[in-house]
Amino acid sequence: MPVSSEEFRAALSRFPSGVTVVTSRDEENRFHGITVSAFCSLSLEPPRVLVCIEKTTGSHEALLWSRTFVVNFLSEGQRELSERFASQLDDKFDEVEFSTGIDGIPLLSGCLVTLECRITNSFDGGDHSIFVGEVETATVNDGDPILYFRGDYRSISA
Ligand SMILES: Cc1cc2nc3c(=O)[nH]c(=O)nc-3n(C[C@H](O)[C@H](O)[C@H](O)COP(=O)(O)O)c2cc1C
Question: How remote is the C-alpha of 54 from its chain's centroid?
Answer without folding.
Answer: 11
